Amino acid sequence: MGTLTDMKNFCTRRTYQRQGHNHVLMAIVVLWLWSGLAWASHDLERERAWATRLEAEIPAAQRIWLGAAAERHLALYLAATQTPIGAVILLHDAGSHPDQGAVIAPLRHQLPALGWSSMALQMPLPDTDARPANYPALLTTAYARIAAAIEYLHTQKVSIIVISGYGLGAWMATNFFVTQTKYHDDIAGLVSISIPSWPDLSPGMDTSRLLAQIKIPRLDVFAELDLPEVRRYAPDRLNSARQTSTAELTKKDTPSFSVHSLHSQVLTRRKYGADGFRQRVIPGADHFYTGQNDALFKAISGWLNAYWRSTAAEIKSPKPASADTGSIPNARQ
Questions:
Q1: Distances (CA, A) of 299 to 221, 305, 323, 327
Q2: What digits encode the pLDDT tens for the residues 159-176?
Q3: How far apart are CA 38 and CA 58, in angstroms?
Q4: Which of 30, 204, 214, 282 is least surrounded, with the fewest CB atoms within 10 Å of its CB?
Q5: Please, which pLDDT band fits residue 318 given cuts at 50, 70 and 90?
Q6: Structural fold of domain 43-316
Q7: What residues contact residue 2 under an 8 Å CB cut-off, 6+ apart?
C-alpha cells in the first residue's frame, strides 16, 4: 500500500482528470447547441421535403435547379407568352415554397400573359420555432439565391428584371438591394407585397429605413386586414419614401447600367425617390389575399405597365408614366 502522500497525489490527479473530462464534455455540448442553432436558422430538411413534393406536382419544363451542389435549390420558371418585356423574380413568404398557393402561384402563372417571364425561387426556410430576431441568419443564403436567379436570367437574354417578394421574401428582397450594390445595375424595380417590419430589433429589420435607401421604382402593396407588423408601419414606409426626394439624385448617384440593363433608357428618364414609390392597399383583403388575387394582380400589373411598355421599341423610347395605376387607392394621400 502506498504512503499517504501517494494517495493524495493519486486523488489530485483523478480530480484534474475529471475536471478535464468535464471541460471536454462542456465544449462538446456548446458546439452541439451552436450547430443546432445554426441548423435551426435554415431548415434544409423542410426545404428538401418541399422540393420532393414540387418535383411530383410541377411539370419538368418549369423546374430549374440553381446553385452549386452544396447549395442546390429549386426554382420554377415560366417564359413570357406575349411579346417579352422582362422577368419578375418571385420570393415566397416564411416557411413556404416557390408555388405557394397564396400570392406566388397566381402571380407566376398570370405574369407571362403580360409579357413578363416569372421565376419563383425556393428561399431559405426559418425553423418552425424561429422568431424575427433569427431571420437575419437567412440572408447570406437568400442573397446567393437571388444572385443565381439574376445570372440565370442573363443567360436567357432578359434585360429588365423586377424582384417581387411576399412577406419575409419582400424583406429579403429589400435587404438584397440595399446591401448587394454590385447588382444595382441588374434590378429595374422592386415590388413588396405585405412587407413586415421589426424596427425595434435592428436597422436591417426596419423596412422604412431600408426603403429610404432605394432609388429605383418600387411598389408597396399590402392588405387592409394584413398582419400588424405589416399594416402598422405602412405610414412609416410611405413617409420614408417621400423623404427620398428627386433632388437627392445627383449625377454621382445615377446608376451606371450594365450591358444587361436596357431598362436604363427608361429609368434615366423616370423620376426617382418619392416620385418612384407607390403604395397600394387592397380593400378587404387579409394577409393571404383570400379571394383577392385578381385585385392584387391588377395593382401589380398596373404598376408594371406604368413603367415598362409592352414592346421593345416603346421601352427604348418610353412615354411618361401615369401616376395612377388603377382603381386601387393609396394607403395614404
A1: 8, 10, 13, 8
A2: 999 999 999 999 999 999
A3: 31
A4: 30
A5: very low
A6: Rossmann fold (3.40.50)
A7: 10
- Written as nine digits, the cell of 148 is 443565381
pLDDT digits 0-9 by tens, 123-150: 999 998 999 999 999 999 999 999 999 9
Centre a 10 Å sphere on the Cβ of residue 185 and count the other Cβ atoms it contains: 16
Torsion sign, CA atoms 72, 261, 257, 207: negative
Cell triple for 286: 387579409
pLDDT(313) > 80: no
Q: Domain limits of the chain?
A: 1-41, 43-316
Cα-based distances in Å from 300 to 46, 111, 222, 294, 309: 30, 10, 11, 10, 14
pLDDT at 109: 98
How does strand 116-121 pair with strand 73-78?
Answer: antiparallel
